[in-house]
Amino acid sequence: MGKARVAPLKQMTIPHMELAAAVLSVKVDKMLCTELQLKLDDLVFWTDSHSVLKYIANEPQEGSKHRVSLLETDLTKGNCSVIINDIKENDAGQYQFRMIGGPFTDPQKITVTALTQEPSMLTPTLTEGKSATLTCTAPGICSGTPPHITWTWRGTGDNMTELRENTTIQKREALTSVTTTHFSTLTFTPSAKYHGTKVTCLVTFNGSVTTKKTLKLNVTNAKRGPKGLRLQKPFHEPGDGGM
Length: 243
Fold this sequence. Notes:
- By secondary structure, the protein is α+β, with helices and mostly antiparallel strands.
- Helices cover 12% and strands 29% of the residues.
């Protein structure tokens, strides 16, 4: 073993060789524990290499802390995919991956584009005097910081009012371990004043990136139908069988 661990003929950097030594120590430890059937509670590995210590600590770059994680934490499954939550414009660029002491993978380019998707809104039939619930779903299903969803109402004038007096509930639904959908519901009782007005759902990501969708409300009356249209009983001429 000692003869095989001298510096290789192919030129390598000192940090690379220090990392290779750290990997070798772990491999030897696993081999000895397996062959000798040892069950040790604590294992201590010593090194004076700052490069090795930084790689082990996996200190993230400024601004990426708590945003980058492995898709699969069990590396024995051979999946080294990573997730970047709350992605930002400066995350664009080329990325390379490698195991400690191993070669880098081919560069992978990531492009970050502006948010163009709008929220999706589900609106039921609105009948005057009957409670109704509108649903607004934020675009995207990636995990990360939950977006903030607000509702605003624009009347016949130019004033916009945030709908706080009505019942608004923001929820999340986990689709998989790494995908989540966020939506908000607005429950209110339509009246004639809402007919022809507009309701806007505003979704804010990370406090700055926003997207919205606006719908025009159509409130019907149970007796009159759409506002302004009165429903009348059919008129029958005498003798045509009508009542």
